[in-house]
TrEMBL record:
Species name: Muriicola marianensis
Keyword field contains Hydrolase: yes
Protein's recorded name: Uracil-DNA glycosylase
Residues covered by the Uracil-DNA glycosylase-like domain: 50-211
Active site (record annotation): 65
Reactions catalysed: Hydrolyzes single-stranded DNA or mismatched double-stranded DNA and polynucleotides, releasing free uracil
Cellular localisation: Cytoplasm
Amino acid sequence: MKVDIHQSWRPHLEEEFNQPYFSSLAGFVREEYSRHTCYPKGSRIFAAFDHSAFEQTKVVILGQDPYHGPGQANGLCFSVRDGITHPPSLVNIFKEVEQDVGHPYPKSGNLERWADQGILLLNAILTVRAGEAGSHQNKGWEQFTDAVIRILSREKQDLVFLLWGGYAKKKATLIDRGKHSILTSGHPSPLSANRGLWFGNGHFSKTNDFLKSKGKDPIVW
């Protein structure tokens, strides 16, 4: 696996790339992609970093692993490629955006427009085998992405971390609450949203309120 990642991240992550676990992970990913259909395509594995340079990152949204259906995953958590039907969680995200900040429901589910404004749309696991959710868990991706969160927490100031659902909320232990804003809620999946744990969390307006209070440009959701 070639680590094709935005140059701004390399000084901060080079130590991780040189760790034995990452070498093992790279070998596993190469083998999986050579023997099976996997998502996202190889050139998009590190897309979240490519669209949100280290210096520009000001918001972090955490997902779990990529969509495993044909043509869906584009390397950004919760995001799908242009022209792809919106998965249920993304539908609920857009509904909350509409309710919270009045931005109309968009035609495209491609969240590159968010990432290009400095939102790191980071899955904990960056690859998956087609049709097999969670198939690349516990192979080293979690160790790598936990390191990313720790490094952001340590080396940056005044970030907003959006942690949706139980899995993401556990990552709060990696973040310095004294330096950053952490917003938590239920997951946008129908199971959680239909139980009243997602809608009305106001995370999109709260994120912008925090950014503006720190002299940063708000996000155009």
